[in-house]
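hey m, so remember when u said the tokens were messed up on ur end? i reran from scratch. heres the input so u can diff it against urs
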Amino acid sequence: RWLFNQAVCTLYAFCGVLFGLCSLTSLTVLGMVCCLKVCYPAYGRCWDFSPCHAGVLLLCVWAYALVFATAPLAEWGSYGPEPYGTACCITWKASSREATLYILALFIFCYLLPCLLILVSYSLILWTVRVSRRAVRQH
């Protein structure tokens, strides 16, 4: 069972959601930057990737994750014990329309969209490498 009070449960769940979203969003941004550099080198040269740009991207990643992680704290969704009661996370069994909308938004914007962007980015990279290999073989 969960050994602590509701406040610790909420903090535990908040941290899990925040760091999980930061992780997936960071991977998404990394895939998109790699795609930009490999597949569109003309745009990659115009947008010089500097430590300042990396810092801005990291701030955007954290801001994006914070929006969705703090939503349950603002009563859009909720945090609570998992079904077995040993840890805490998002309350997946939505009891209200707002909670259902939060879970749907979380699924679309924090899972589906990042996964699709990663898939498209790395597919474009693989396609570009394949086309380049063919061009080198012909010469």
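this time it looks ok to me. The chain has a mean pLDDT of 91. if urs says something different then somethings off w ur setup not the seq
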